Amino acid sequence: MSSAFELDPITLEVVTAGLISIVREMRATVFHTARSVAIYEAKDFSCGLFDATSEVIAQSEDIGAHVVPLPWSVQSAMAEFAGDLAAGDVILLNDPYRGGTHLNDVTLIYPVFEDGRLILFPAVREHWADVGGMTPGSLSGRATEIYQEGVRIPPIKIVERGRVNAAAMTLILANMRVPDERQGDFHAGLAACKTAERRIREVVARYGLPVLLAAIRQNLDRSEARMREKIARLPDGAYVFEDYLETFEDGRFEPLLLPLTLTITGDQLVADFTGASPQVPVPVNSTLAVTAASVFIALKSVLDPDAPLNHGSFRPIRVIAPEGTIVNVKPPAPAGSHGEIRKRVIAVMTGALSQVAPDLIAGDLFRTSFHNLVGGIHPRTGRQYVHYEWASGGNGGFAEDDGPSAMASIDWGDLNTVQPTEVLESRFPLRIESSALATNSAGDGRHRGGLAMRRELRLCGPEASYSVLADGAVLPAFGILGAWSGVPVGSHVVRQRREVRFTTPGKVSGFRMIEGDVLVLQSAGGGGYGDPLERDPERVLGDVREGYVSGERARERYGVVVGDDLTVDRSATGALRAELAAARFTLEIVSVNEPLYRAGAVSRRRVCPMNPADARRNGFRARDLVELVAPRAAPLRAWVVVDRKIRPGSVPLDPIGQRVLGLGPGARLHVRLMADTREGNRWRR
C-alpha cells in the first residue's frame, strides 16, 4: 500500500485526533517537568508534530506565535543535516535568522525514523527566561545588535545517537543566567519528544505506516480546501492599510512605517509588505518566519477558526516581505521584538480585512507582548533570579460583543494571562501589591474593547535590574468602524511615593531598582467596534457600575448621562448624543496625487495638512497625532501639518488614504486628536 490511497472518514478522524492527542501529551510532559515559572505556570511553550517535508501536521492549544513559525526552523535543521540524521539525534536551535522567533524561544527538534525512513519530527519550543545578553531576561529595549540579546544557537546536534553533547551543553549554559533552570527546561522538552516518539510508534503499530501517512496527507489537503473556500467568499481586489512601530532616536519618537497590500484573487491571497521600513539597530525587527506566521494566524483566526490548525491552511497564502526590512531582518540587527512585529502584522491584516469583511473581524488587539524582566540576586538564596512578567491586555470589540479583558490574544494560545501571586512571591523577592482591570482603558465603541490590566510589584530584595521591551506605548490599539483606540501600554517605578518615568516608554534596558521600589505595569486596552454613540445606554450604565468606565467617560464618549442614583437619564442622554454627533470635527476630502508622507531619520510618517483656522478652532497644533476616521473602516493615524495653502474646511487625502478609508473627494472625513490629553500626546510630537 502507498500513502496515495484514500482513507474512510472514520479512520481519518481517529488517526488525526490521535496525532493531536500526542501533542497534548507532549504539552503535559513539559508542563509537569519544567523548572521555570514562565513554562510550568505561564505555559510559555508549544509543541507540534511535523512531517518529513517540515510541514506542521498537528498542534493543540499551543501558542500560534511558536508553532506557526516552527516549519522554518525545521527546514533550517533539515538543510543543515540533510542525509546526516540518525535515530537518537536531537537538534537544538534558537537562531531567529534560521526560522526562530527571538533568542529566548529555544527549540528542540527530534527526528523519528521507521525502518530507516524519516517519518515525523516532534518539536518543542520553550521560552527560556534568560539566554544571556546585556540584561537579565535577555530582552532589552535598547539592544542595537543581536549579540546583546543572548546566546545565538544555530541548528546543532545537542544529542547524537542518544548521547548528549556535554561540551556544547556546558558552553551554552555557561553563558546563561540561572543555568540549572535552563537545564531543567531542556530535559523537560527532551522528555516530551521522547514521549511523542513512543506514541507515534504505537500509532504505526496499530494502523501501519501507510495509513498514518495517508491520514496526514488527506488532513492537510482538506485544510487547504477549507481555507481556499473561505478566501473565495471574499471579494476580489487589492486592499491596503498601514501602521507603525515605535522607536526613539536620541530621545525623540521615530515611527517606522509598516504598509500592507492584501490582494485576493479567487481562492488565493497575497500579503505584500513592500515599502516596510528598513531594518534598524533597535529591537523592532523580526524575521520572515514570524511575519508570514502572523499573516497565517490572522487569516486562520478570522476565516476558519473552528478547524484544527495544520500547514494545509497556509498553502493558498503567499507572503512578500522584502529582505533587510523590519519584517525580514538580516544579521546582525536585533530580533528580540518578534512579538511586536507579530502583533503589528496582525493589526495591519485587521485593518485591511475591515474593508473586506467587517463582520468577521474585531478592533485591534492589545498591540504588544509587553516583555517585562526583573533580575538580580535573591537575598534568601544568594543566587541569581530572573522574573519574566507580562500583563495581558484587552482584545478588540467585535460585531457580537465587547472584547475580552486581560486575556491572551489570538496568537498566544492558552498562555496564562495572570501569573499567580503565590508562585511569584515564593520564587522571587517580589510582593504583588495589586492586580486589577484599569478603568477607562478600553477602546470606546458600540462594542467596547477589552480592558487593560494594571499590576504593581514591590521589590523586597536589595536591588534589581528592570528592562522592558514593548510597543504600543505611543500608538495604542485602534478601534474600527468609528470606535476609539484603547489606552497605550506603559510602565513606571514609584520610589518613595514619587513616580519615576522612562524617557523612552516601552524601550528600557537595565534600570536599577532599589528595595521598596514599586514597579507599576499597565497593559494596553483593546480597540472598540462601531460608533460609541450607538452603544446601548444600559450597557454603558453597567460598565459604570462595574468600574470599567467612569461617569465622566460615559458622558464624553458614549453620550450617556448617569444620575446620582446610578440610572440612565434617557432624555438628557438623547440630547447629549445629538450634541456630540453634531460637534464632531469633519473636513471635506480634496484628492491629491502625491503621497502624504514626511520623511524622518529612519522612516516615513503620514501627515494631515490642515488650514491654521481649522487647527485653531479644534485645538490642534502642528505635529499632533490625529486619527482619520471613517464609519466603515479602520482609522489612519497621521501627524498634523499646519499649512495656509489648504482651503479652510478641507483636508487633502492621497489615493492610498482614500482606499483605506473608503472615502473619495467631496466626502466628509472625521478628524480627532489621538490622545485623551495633551500630556498623553507629547510622545507623538
Features:
685 residues; alpha+beta; 4 domains; 8-stranded antiparallel β-sheet; 7-stranded mixed β-sheet; 25% strand
Stretches where pLDDT is under 50 for at least 5 consecutive residues are 677-685
Discrete helix count? 15
Structural class: alpha+beta
Mass-distribution shape: globular
**Distance N terminus to C terminus?**
68 Å
The number of E-state strands comes to 28
As a percent range, the share of strand residues is 15-25%
Q: Overall mean pLDDT score?
A: 93
Q: C-alpha Rg, in Å?
A: 26 Å
Taken together, the total number of domains comes to 4
Sheet with the most strands, sense and barrel status = 8 strands, antiparallel
Structure notes:
The chain is of the alpha+beta class and 685 residues long. The chain has 4 domains: 9-223, no CATH class; 363-535, no CATH class; 537-583, no CATH class; 586-684, Barwin-like endoglucanases (Beta Barrel), CATH 2.40.40.20. Helix content is 28%, strand content 25%. It is built from 15 helices and 28 strands. The strands form 5 sheets. Strands 1, 2, 3, 4, 5, 6, 7 and 8 form an 8-stranded antiparallel beta sheet that branches. The longest helix is centred in the first third of the chain and has 29 residues, at 179-207.
